[in-house]
Amino acid sequence: MAYFTTTNKNPIKFLHFLTIFSLLSPFSLSSPSSPPPSIHDLLVSRGLPKGLLPEEVKSYTLSDNGTLEVFLDEPCLTKYENRVFFDSVVRANLSYGSLIGVVGLSQEELFLWLPVKDIIVNDPKSGLILFDIGVAYKQLSLSLFEEPPHCKPQGILNNQVRKQKGFEAMR
Ligand SMILES: *[C@@H]1O[C@H](CO)[C@@H](O)[C@H](O)[C@H]1NC(C)=O
Ligand SMILES: *[C@@H]1O[C@H](CO)[C@@H](O)[C@H](O)[C@H]1NC(C)=O
Fold this sequence. Notes:
171 residues; alpha+beta; at5g01610, DUF538 DOMAIN; globular; disordered N terminus; binds 2-acetamido-2-deoxy-beta-D-glucopyranose
């Protein structure tokens, strides 16, 4: 578990700094030509941890109605507490602190793959994130989601097994 202190971070001062900076600067921070935020910055701006989606996200779209679509090159596996499977397209309704009606994300629970339905951060200070996996709610520590994990295509498991056999054959 990770605990954060606020002693060396002052968000209010930082915001003031940004405001003054954007007033003085000829370049507006919200200039229309600035590139869209990365998916991980987007998550953070919506009160969600950036590690919720893997490093390998290729692109995303966010519609006016809140529908977020995230695109990966191929389905892949990663691990937080348990193993988690991302489909090549993950879809959900993004609003502040939640992803509702998630499609394309499953997590392993006692050898069963259960689709994740909702992901909710009610209170960041609690240090907890809530996963609705249909049969139950799971509370996990937010600290598991601090950094975007690497997500491995499923085929890589087979390749590793094959490689090991190859080494054994050479001995
Ligand atoms: C939200 O907008 C997207 C793109 O405009 C559309 O494809 C989708 O059907 C809409 N979803 C709902 C529930 O209205
Ligand atoms: C997403 O959630 C927002 C807020 O709850 C709601 O207003 C909106 O209609 C939802 N969009 C979709 C596509 O379900």
